[in-house]
Amino acid sequence: MEIFSAAFLSALLAIVLIDLVLAGDNALIIGLVARNLPKEQQSKVIFWGTFGAIAIRAAMAAVVVYLLAIPGFLLVGGLALIWIARKLLMPGNEGAEHESSLTSKPVTSLWAAVRTVIIADAVMGVDNVIAIGGAAQGSMFLLILGLAISVPIIVWGSHLVIKLVDRFPAVILVGGAVLSWTAYAMIIREPFLAAWFTNHPATKMATVILIFSVSLSPWWAARLPERVKPITVLLPALMVWLLAFEAAATVWHVKVSYLSATEFGAQALNAMRWVGWVPLAVAFLYVRERFIATRGAAQA
Question: pTM value?
Fold first, then answer.
C-alpha cells in the first residue's frame, strides 16, 4: 500500500477511529489505578506504563502479523470484531468487570500501579490489536503506526475520550460501524472465501448488511420503539437466509438468478429463496407477541 494514497489514508482514519473508541476502557483503568498516587508519581506511572504498553503491543502486533497468514484467521478475526462491536454498543458500562478485578484494591505504590496498568493493557488490548491488524490490511507500517497512535490516546487522552463519549454518544456508534466495516473487509479477504465472494457478487451486499445489522443491533435495540425492535432480528435473519441459498446454489450447481433459471428445481429453489422466509417471519412475530403478552400478564 503506497503511503499517502487514498487507501492508506482511509485505513489510517479507520485505525484512528478504532483507537479512539477502544481506548476508552483502557484509559479509564489507568485513571482509576493512578488516582491514589501523589501527583509527582502519576507522571512516572504514565512513563513506565507507556513503555510497558509499547513493548507488549509490539509483541502482540508481531504475533498478529503471523496469525493473519494462517488460513481461517481472517474469518475468525472478523467474527471477533463483530463480537467486540456488539460488546462496545451494549447498554451500560461493559468495562465494569475488568475494572472491579483490576482496581478493587487501591494501588498506593509506584510499581504496583505500573504493573496494574501493563496488565490492564495486555488484557484489554487484544481487541485493539486485532482491529488495527484488520484495518491495516497487511501493511506493517500501518500496523506499527496504529499501535503507536493508540498509546498516547490511552495514556494521555483518558479524560478526553471519556468526556467525548459521554457528551457525544454517537462516537461509539461510529466506532462500532468502523469495526463492522473492518470485520467485513477481513471476512471477504479470507483466502478460502475470497473466490466464492468474487463468483457471487450479490453475497457481498448481503454480508455487509448482515455484519452491520448484527454488530449495531444492541445500539438500536436500546433506542427503537418496542413495535419496531423485531427488525434487529428479522434483518440479519433475512441476510442469513439469502446467503444460505447462495451457498446451496453453489453446492447443488443451480442458477441463482430467477430470470435465468430454466429447470424446475432451480425455479423452485429461487421461489423458496425469495418468499420462503415470509411465513417464518410471521411465525416469529406471532410468538414474540404472545411471549410479551404472557410476560406482561405474569408481571401484573
Answer: 0.66
